From TrEMBL, chain A:
It comes from Colwellia psychrerythraea (Vibrio psychroerythus). This is Fe(3+)-transporting ATPase. It comes from the Bacteria. The lineage of its organism: Bacteria, Pseudomonadati, Pseudomonadota, Gammaproteobacteria, Alteromonadales. InterPro entries: AAA+_ATPase, ABC_SmlMolc_Importer, ABC_transporter-like_ATP-bd, ABC_transporter-like_CS, ABC_transpr_FbpC, P-loop_NTPase. Coiled coil: none annotated.
UniProtKB/TrEMBL annotation, chain B:
Signal peptide: none annotated. It comes from Colwellia psychrerythraea. Gene3D superfamilies: MetI-like. Residues 52-257, 329-535 form the ABC transmembrane type-1 domain. Belongs to the binding-protein-dependent transport system permease family. Keywords: Cell membrane, Membrane, Transmembrane, Transmembrane helix, Transport. It is a multi-pass membrane protein. This is ABC-type transporter, integral membrane subunit.
Length: 358, 542
């Protein structure tokens, strides 16, 4: 399958600050990509480059094998056949729902415009509001008009900039599923920007994690969550807590004990961080000959899964300070009090070690 | 903010328009610099010191009085439980619609030796000659200052009231919890916080005072503006008039810079102004004093003059006045229509340029084009004459050389000069209104048309202009009204036998015959009321 969108070595500098550096991305026709990353990491800038609102400093962008930007020449936004749904929807307040949807259809005849508008109104359950003005609609209805308007000119690529951030949680999920179905039905390729990974699971086929202007990992959301490829990806997606370990003789030593390494390509004495999910930890309160306390409770909350604790290592001058851990997340049915000493151990699982970036 | 378009013709026309608008001022300033130093030293040895002293003294007194009237009335309205507050709130704005020269004439008529007040006093107390009693002389510098302050204090009132109403109420709650009374909190928290707004309003009053021509001319107080007028029309000395105008521009530039410097980075607007304010409770005596003060301002600044005008209109109006009024009214409408339409068109072109163009310096044309607002009409007229006069001569010579008959003064001696001057003077109003309308449009609406395949022209005609329609109308109306009221530029630039409402009323005032033009004067005041009503309505909505 040929790529509908292809980005090569893209770089953008705004106000003497590198926003995006040497970014590569490829997207097949019909794919929905969820682009996640912290605020200010360059997600919206990337969308604006693809849409043609920002001229990149270097790199090439292709849509459907046509070069639309190469750092010197840039096809103007209105000629790219790229649609966009804005965070605030950007609906025209002086036009009715029907006129908003028909806005990008001026090249069609009146009859064709009407037919396309009617089709989208009915698909998005907006037929009753065709003559209403935007201010007369609810948030969810406005969202539907925005998607209908963006889909009306049948763009090759649709960009969605945090389109669900203004919708309340209950409606959000429903709307995401509905819009996803619609995009699949039109076989529309889409890039969807969010900082909420849960939205990506509901809406997208692929996930891309962006950190400081670079795409660190692209793949199916479930694969990325199971096999993050870096500390930053796992940390941004909040896949677990971090346990410092020191590599020694084919094993990694931590304050919670020793685990055997499967891979042997790690340097001796390297300080690594083991990704531990709450399910990887076993918590004990009773102290016997085989167990001694190695952590204390820092924070307590009550959740549906039982008590949720953050535990940190006990300050022990005989142990290396490098291996001290802070706020490991763990669930338990046992009721504990603050500063209570507990014993933590690691359940055997597929260990993921990462070195922490400076 | 990311701009969208890189249209070269748009860029060129924006810079050319900005240059054209500022060119007359540059020509005048260059002309005055190149004027002989002999001329300047002659002016300095003869009249300039007294003109300068009068100008500065007048400015000082007007600002002082306007601050006293404006800050006190705004404080009373926002901080106390004064009765009839809901009416006084907007009534105190009305004097702004009254041209100072009208008030000056009406009060002179009222308080002069031959006026009804002194006549009644003489008959009551049986005084025979002026030596029998003392009565203040209104046709003096302090009198002119009082007249100007009476119609300019609403600037101070409006901005101070706005600043006081938009302060964070939690600051006062904190102040009260720290042991201060409501009155102490007002003096140690509210008033210091309102200082930037008060400074802005004072500079506005100062600029209006420096620009005033008709009031001081009527009171025979020689200031720089009257000097410019007399030097040009009386002695036909363009170079000397230019020098005087340039000195005035330098003073205004100093005021503008000082004002901007004094408030740089100081804003005290609050996100929580709507919290309920605790009012200072006035005693009966205080209520009386506060009411007397506020109502005196309303009566003397607006109600009394308008009643006097209505009485005049009823007593003296006849059919010949009405036909003259229609003629001059049509002239006023004509020049105001052209000026407002041109200014709004330019504001849209430059405002949207600033918003949508990729040019790194896209703000410059808009900023440059608004410069004229600080320039008095008299000065602007001199600048027009300095620029358009030589251009006319050049055109005539060129015409003759090419074998055509000389076209005459087609630029400096026609309506073109007036409309041009009005556009330069009031572009800032159109710019400000249009820009504030543009900033209300979310930036995503600039991008949305392009994402739907619509180009720049389509985006502007289908999205920006329809959304801006109410703002465009408002900007047009504001410039239209200001152009209707403008006097000095029209007086100096009008072609022969061309009268507008304001110039006709000024002539009648000069000839002590305002009765003949009372209807026109009422019309000017009514036009002046329009923006006040509209702006106040907008503010209340906010």
């Amino acid at each position: 399958m040929s790529a509908l969108l292809s980005i090569e070595q893209l770089s953008i500098t705004l106000k003497e600050r590198n926003i995006i550096s040497m970014l590569n991305l490829s997207l097949n026709e019909g794919d929905i990509l969820g682009l996640v990353g912290a605020s200010g990491c360059g997600k919206t800038t990337l969308l604006n480059v693809i849409a043609g609102f920002i001229k990149p400093n270097g790199g090439r962008v292709f849509i459907d094998d046509h070069l639309i930007s190469d750092g010197e020449h840039c096809l103007s936004a209105e000629q790219r056949q790229v649609g966009m749904i804005f965070q605030d929807y950007a609906l025209f307040p002086h036009l009715t729902v029907k006129e908003n949807i028909a806005f990008g259809l001026s090249k069609l005849s009146k009859a064709e415009q009407l037919e396309q508008v009617d089709r989208l109104l009915s698909l998005l359950k907006l037929s009753d509001y065709r003559d209403s003005y935007i201010q007369q609609l609810s948030g969810g209805q406005q969202q539907r008009v925005a998607i209908a308007r963006a889909l009306a000119p049948e763009p090759k690529l649709l960009l969605l900039d945090e389109p669900f951030s203004n919708i309340d949680a209950r409606l959000r999920n429903e709307l995401m599923l509905e819009i996803r179905q619609l995009l699949k039905r039109f076989n529309t390729t889409a890039i969807f920007v969010t900082h909420n990974k849960d939205e990506v699971f509901t809406f997208a086929d692929k996930m891309a994690v962006m950190v400081q202007g670079r795409l660190l990992q692209i793949g199916a959301p479930s694969i990325i969550c199971q096999q993050p490829n870096s500390y930053q990806v796992a940390d941004f997606l909040q896949l677990g807590s971090w346990l410092p370990c020191q590599v020694k003789h084919k094993s990694a030593q931590s304050l919670l004990g020793k685990v055997t390494l499967v891979t042997h390509d790690l340097k001796q004495e390297d300080l690594l961080y083991l990704l531990v999910k709450p399910s990887h930890l076993r918590l004990k309160v009773s102290i016997d000959e085989n167990s001694y306390p190695n952590a204390e409770v820092e924070y307590i909350s009550v959740t549906e899964q039982g008590y949720h604790y953050y535990v940190s290592s006990i300050n022990d001058p005989t142990k290396s300070e490098l291996l001290s851990f802070y706020k490991l997340s763990v669930y338990s049915d046992i009721e504990l009090s603050l500063k209570q000493k507990v014993t933590l151990s690691i359940r055997p699982h597929e260990y993921l070690f990462f070195s922490r970036p400076d | 903010m990311i701009a969208l378009y890189n249209n070269k013709r748009w860029k060129l026309s924006s810079y050319v328009i900005a240059l054209v608008l500022i060119l007359p001022m540059l020509v005048m300033l260059v002309g005055s610099v190149s004027a002989s130093t002999k001329l300047f030293s002659h002016l300095w040895q003869t009249v300039l010191p007294s003109y300068l002293a009068n100008t500065l003294l007048l400015a000082f007194w007007v600002v002082l009085l306007a601050l006293f009237f404006g800050v006190l009335s705004a404080s009373i309205i926002t901080q106390t439980n004064i009765v009839f507050k809901q009416y006084l709130r907007w009534l105190l704005l009305l004097p702004l619609s009254m041209p100072a020269y009208l008030v000056a004439y009406l009060y002179t008529d009222l308080f002069d030796y031959a006026g009804p007040v002194q006549r009644i006093l003489r008959s009551w107390f049986d005084w025979q000659t002026p030596n029998d009693y003392w009565f203040f002389d209104i046709r003096t510098l302090p009198g002119a200052a009082l007249m100007l302050a009476l119609v300019l204090f609403p600037y101070v009132y409006m901005l101070t009231r706005g600043a006081l109403e938009h302060q964070d109420q939690n600051l006062f709650r904190a102040s009260r919890l720290l042991g201060l009374t409501a009155k102490q909190s007002f003096f140690s928290v509210a008033l210091p916080l309102a200082r930037p707004a008060i400074a802005v309003s004072a500079s506005l009053v100062l600029m209006e005072t420096l620009a005033d021509f008709a009031t001081v001319q009527y009171f025979s107080v020689n200031t720089l503006t009257t000097a410019i007028y007399d030097t040009w029309l009386g002695y036909g000395d363009l170079a000397a008039a230019n020098t005087l105008a340039s000195i005035l521009v330098l003073i205004i530039l100093f005021v503008v810079l000082a004002e901007q410097r004094s408030r740089s980075g100081v804003t005290h607007q609050s996100a929580r102004p709507s919290l309920k304010r605790e009012l200072i409770q006035l005693s009966v005596g205080q209520q009386l004093l506060a009411s007397l003060f506020c109502w005196s301002l309303v009566v003397s600044g607006f109600l009394l003059p308008i009643v006097l005008l209505i009485i005049m209109a009823v007593q003296y109006s006849d059919i010949t006045q009405l036909s003259a009024l229609i003629l001059t009214g049509m002239n006023s409408l004509k020049i105001s229509f052209f000026a407002a339409t041109t200014a709004v068109f330019i504001a849209l072109l430059l405002g949207l340029y600033q918003r949508l163009h990729t040019d790194k310096y896209r703000k410059i044309p808009l900023q440059v084009s608004g410069f004229g607002y600080a320039v008095p009409g008299t000065v602007l007229a001199m600048a027009m004459l300095s620029t358009l006069g030589p251009l006319d001569h050049w055109l005539n010579r060129a015409g003759e050389l090419l074998g055509f008959s000389a076209p005459g003064l087609i630029l400096s001696g026609s309506l073109f000069a007036i409309v041009f001057a009005l556009v330069v003077r009031f572009s800032a109003i159109a710019n400000g209104t249009i820009t504030s309308g543009i900033t209300q449009i979310p930036q995503s609406l600039d991008y949305a048309p392009a994402s739907l395949g619509v180009n720049l022209l389509g985006s502007i005609t289908k999205v920006h202009l329809p959304i801006l329609t109410p703002t465009i109308l408002m900007a047009w109306l504001l410039v239209f009204v200001e152009a209707m009221k403008e006097l000095p530029a029209v007086l100096l630039l009008r072609p022969f036998n061309f009268e507008t409402l304001s110039s006709q009323i000024y002539q009648l005032i000069s000839n002590e015959m305002l009765e003949q033009g009372a209807l026109g004067a009422i019309l000017i005041v009514l036009f002046g009321l329009l923006p006040i009503v509209l702006l106040n309505k907008n503010k209340e909505r906010v």
